[in-house]
């Protein structure tokens, strides 16, 4: 029995499994006109949004012809056809791509190709998705229940099936796929024995079975009837044969890149907009060869890369990229399941739940955060970022707070309650906390810290009482275990006790520091964690996992999900009540298979291997701290607990800005600044996966050398004279010819630097200006300890090439300094800050 449908140039034939009969029963195929099908499907989809039920599917399988055509060959169940046709589209892989031009030519010159899908009840379905220009699948979806596609430019809404149909689909496994030239349908059995590629051997071999390779080869034959194999097909996209070659090449490329990364500049030597003139205005019409693409990558893209894995990259925090993690992502990308529900890919969900319990236990979280612990309502989930973790906990706490407030005042409006909600964090909290409050439309009180940059519980307590007295409702507080600026650790226990007493949801943000807890010697930092409602950490920072992988645990998963559940029928399935559906635990619906990389890395390193890695970073940070402490030019500004050391040259902020910008501009090393206790400090973070003592010594040498150069220049009489001259230029004291002479000298210098293609500063002085807020600018001009001439020098340098070039190295990590322009805009906006004295930020 066959079902067929014409997709432009393609007939699709569906056959019920019949192990003894592998040939199509042509008499029962029903070629349909694309236009009529498209129209019917559209209409049908509009009328029957959820029409494709398992029972219908079964019925169709039982008596297809009856239900599908009348005496005039008109279709009576277009809905079911659409479901099946979309099924077909799902079972052909995306990698079967056809260039638009070639496909068009098949319209006029070549016979219509035929896709032949056999259905059987045996296991191991072969899944694939067709994709050609006439019938492009725009939304590759794993469950065949929520996609849209275009068929001959008609938008055809995919029918939405429920869990039953999905299960039925599984029971009616599709395990045979064959694509043939329509001309050859009558010789179908011959094709079963056709010559196909043995990709392991790279040579042709004979198969009796349809497999992925024969699908590819046969499909090629459909569209390129004169060609015998994929290798002979006109070039388009990448077939699996080429993939095997290119994939291996890429692995070598990556290994070479990482092995020789130390020979590169850390930061790129490009200016904003460098790429635009080098790429065509429009996307290429014709397919391009892979070699050309990679050549362009090397020539155009690589020069604009900041090398985060470079041993002299000491900015921000580490970006994990262990090999097993890269491999896991590769596999996950290939599987390409979108695990928004258990049914969408059971192992994707189940592995995630188990990994979160593994990790939770490994870092010493109590049972109440675990999914599988007895009597626990808790559990963990992988989110895309720490910012997302923070936001969803604020939203969950907000939901709960509004619910509780309505119990007290049933007639109160949600909006009135929302206006009273107030959240808390310290000055050192990450900017994502501020962002979460903005998105959540709640007030945020930002509290001062103690001498170690930790939240002050006494201040929290006082603020809560004051706010309550004013009619506010304290509902959420975020503390940090390893702050971004300086890795300070807020006291979980004392803050936790206050939050518990006041019914405030306490969230612990351990985005970076959390990974340290895998070592038992750091777990003392968790004291009081049982008082928290949620906790997040980023293994993609400091646990060797590639971005993205942010872990969030909650003690009450129902409180989390009640704020986020929206449950359209098409996403429901028959196990909804028994299984976790992670789409309710976060903002996006679609989710990558991220737990795979956790699983690979944890197993491949073992907890011991991960501990070793963390301890090495902490030990090296201590080494760096010691080197700096022994050098009397420097001071250490933070308590070094993890892999981060904050230091500064003894002297002004300006001096330190110059030091950092000089180092960054050199491309030899990369660090970012922070603002600690109103002082500009330089953050040195141990980031490289394989960092060694030599790397630390080398880093210290670079900093030391640049500092010596800077101090020498600042102190030299010669530079003083130069500065005076520059000052005169700026103030217009020079005569016209003197000015011309000066400008000429300066532009010559700039063009030499341009030719050299790098911002060389050793032996000279290259200075970037760090953008400042208006307040900082004023402070700098009035209070700076440095002589005036340095400021003058700064002003002059603002106009220089170096200043323009340094844009990309002016990225900063301090939460309050992310984008000075935004800070400036915010400080100008009277709406943003309700009360500068109280430190409360209001969303309106
Ligand atoms: C303490 C802390 N929290 C949150 C974040 C934000 O992380 P993400 O980029 O995953 O949103 C960072 C980033 O560095 C951080 O250091």
Automatic annotation (TrEMBL):
Give the Pfam families listed for this entry.
Pyridoxal_deC
N6-(pyridoxal phosphate)lysine-modified residues are 541
Compositional bias (Polar residues): 102-113
Per the record, where are the segments of Low complexity compositional bias?
A: 120-140
A Gene Ontology term for the protein's cellular component: cytoplasm
Question: What cofactor does this protein call for?
Answer: pyridoxal 5'-phosphate
Q: Which CDD domains match?
A: DOPA_deC_like
Q: Where is the composition biased (Basic and acidic residues)?
A: 57-71
The source's superkingdom equals Eukaryota
Which GO annotations describe the biological process of this protein? amino acid metabolic process; carboxylic acid metabolic process
Renumbered residue ranges of the record's region Disordered: 19-40, 57-78, 102-140, 185-209
The protein's matches in InterPro entries, at most eight in alphabetical order, are given as: Aromatic_deC, PyrdxlP-dep_de-COase, PyrdxlP-dep_Trfase, PyrdxlP-dep_Trfase_major, PyrdxlP-dep_Trfase_small
Q: Where are the transmembrane segments?
A: none
Q: Which UniProt keywords apply?
A: Decarboxylase, Lyase, Pyridoxal phosphate
Molecular function terms in GO for this entry?
carboxy-lyase activity; pyridoxal phosphate binding
Question: What family is this protein classified in?
Answer: Belongs to the group II decarboxylase family.
Provide the protein name. Tyrosine decarboxylase
């Amino acid at each position: 029995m066959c079902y067929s449908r014409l997709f432009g140039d393609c007939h699709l034939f569906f056959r019920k499994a019949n192990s003894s009969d592998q040939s199509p029963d042509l008499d029962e195929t029903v070629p349909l006109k694309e236009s009529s099908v498209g129209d019917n499907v559209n209409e049908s989809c509009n009328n029957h949004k959820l029409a494709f039920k398992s029972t219908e599917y079964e019925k169709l399988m039982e008596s297809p012809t009856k239900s599908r055509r009348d005496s005039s060959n008109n279709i009576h169940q277009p809905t079911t056809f659409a479901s099946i046709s979309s099924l077909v589209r799902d079972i052909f892989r995306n990698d079967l791509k056809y260039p638009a031009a070639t496909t068009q030519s098949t319209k006029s010159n070549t016979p219509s190709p035929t896709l032949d899908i056999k259905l059987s009840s045996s296991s191991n379905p072969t899944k694939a998705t067709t994709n050609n220009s006439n019938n492009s699948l725009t939304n590759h979806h794993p469950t065949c229940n929520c996609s849209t596609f275009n068929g001959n430019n008609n938008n055809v809404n995919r029918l939405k099936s429920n869990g039953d149909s999905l299960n039925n689909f599984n029971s009616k496994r599709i395990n045979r796929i064959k694509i043939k030239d329509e001309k050859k349908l009558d010789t179908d059995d011959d094709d079963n024995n056709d010559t196909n590629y043995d990709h392991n051997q790279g040579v042709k071999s004979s198969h009796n079975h349809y497999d992925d390779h024969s699908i590819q080869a046969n499909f090629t034959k459909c569209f390129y009837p004169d060609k015998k194999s994929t290798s002979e097909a006109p070039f388009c996209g990448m077939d699996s044969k080429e993939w095997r070659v290119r994939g291996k090449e890429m692995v070598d490329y990556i290994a070479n890149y990482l092995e020789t990364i130390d020979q590169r500049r850390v930061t790129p030597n490009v200016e904003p907009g460098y790429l635009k003139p080098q790429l065509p205005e429009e996307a290429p019409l014709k397919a391009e060869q892979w070699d050309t693409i990679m050549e362009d990558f090397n020539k155009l893209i690589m020069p604009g890369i900041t090398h985060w894995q470079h041993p002299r990259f000491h900015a921000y925090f580490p970006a994990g990229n262990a090999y097993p993690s890269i491999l896991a992502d590769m596999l996950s990308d290939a599987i390409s399941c979108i695990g928004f529900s258990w049914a969408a890919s059971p192992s994707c969900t189940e592995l995630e739940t188990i990994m979160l319990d593994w990790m939770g236990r490994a870092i010493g979280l109590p049972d109440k955060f675990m999914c599988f612990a007895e009597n626990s309502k808790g559990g963990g989930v992988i989110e895309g970022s720490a910012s997302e973790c923070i936001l969803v906990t604020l939203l969950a706490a907000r939901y709960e707070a509004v619910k509780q407030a309505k119990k007290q005042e049933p007639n109160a409006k949600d909006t009135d309650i929302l206006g009273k909600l107030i959240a808390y964090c310290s000055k050192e909290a990450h900017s994502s906390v501020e962002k979460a409050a903005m998105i959540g439309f709640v007030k945020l009180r930002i509290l001062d810290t103690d001498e170690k940059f930790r939240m002050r519980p006494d201040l929290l307590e006082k603020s809560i009482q004051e706010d309550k007295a004013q009619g506010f409702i304290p509902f959420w507080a975020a503390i940090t275990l390893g702050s971004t600026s300086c890795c300070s650790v807020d006291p979980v226990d004392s803050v936790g006790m206050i939050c518990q007493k006041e019914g405030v949801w306490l969230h612990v943000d351990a985005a970076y520091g959390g990974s340290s807890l895998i070592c038992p010697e750091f777990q003392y930092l968790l004291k009081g964690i049982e008082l928290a409602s949620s906790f997040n950490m980023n293994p993609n920072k400091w646990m060797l996992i590639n971005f993205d992988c942010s872990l969030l645990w909650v003690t009450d998963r129902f409180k989390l999900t009640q704020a986020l559940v929206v449950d359209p029928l098409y996403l429901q399935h028959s196990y909804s009540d028994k299984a976790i559906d992670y789409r309710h635990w976060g903002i996006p619906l679609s989710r990558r298979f991220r737990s795979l990389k956790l699983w690979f890395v944890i197993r491949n390193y073992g907890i011991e291997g991960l501990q070793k890695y963390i301890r090495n970073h902490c030990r090296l940070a201590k080494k760096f701290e010691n080197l700096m402490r022994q050098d009397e030019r420097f001071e250490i500004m933070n308590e070094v607990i993890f892999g981060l050391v904050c230091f500064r040259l003894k002297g002004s902020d300006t001096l330190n800005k110059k030091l950092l910008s000089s180092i960054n501009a050199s491309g030899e090393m990369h660090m970012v600044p922070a603002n600690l206790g109103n002082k500009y400090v330089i953050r040195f973070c141990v980031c490289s996966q394989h960092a060694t003592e030599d790397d630390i010594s080398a880093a210290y040498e670079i900093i030391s050398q640049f500092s010596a150069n800077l101090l020498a220049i600042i102190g030299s009489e010669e530079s003083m004279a130069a500065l005076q001259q520059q000052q005169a230029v700026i103030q217009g004291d020079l005569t016209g010819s003197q000015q011309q002479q000066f400008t000429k000298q300066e532009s010559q210098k700039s063009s030499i630097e341009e030719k050299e293609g790098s911002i060389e500063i050793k032996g000279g002085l290259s200075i970037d200006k760090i953008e400042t807020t208006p307040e900082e600018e004023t402070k700098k001009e009035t209070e700076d300890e440095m002589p005036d001439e340095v400021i003058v020098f700064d002003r002059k340098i603002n106009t220089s090439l170096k200043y323009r070039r340094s844009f990309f190295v002016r990225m900063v990590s301090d939460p309050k300094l992310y984008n000075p322009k935004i800070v400036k805009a915010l400080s100008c906006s009277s709406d943003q800050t309700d009360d500068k004295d109280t430190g409360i930020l209001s969303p309106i």
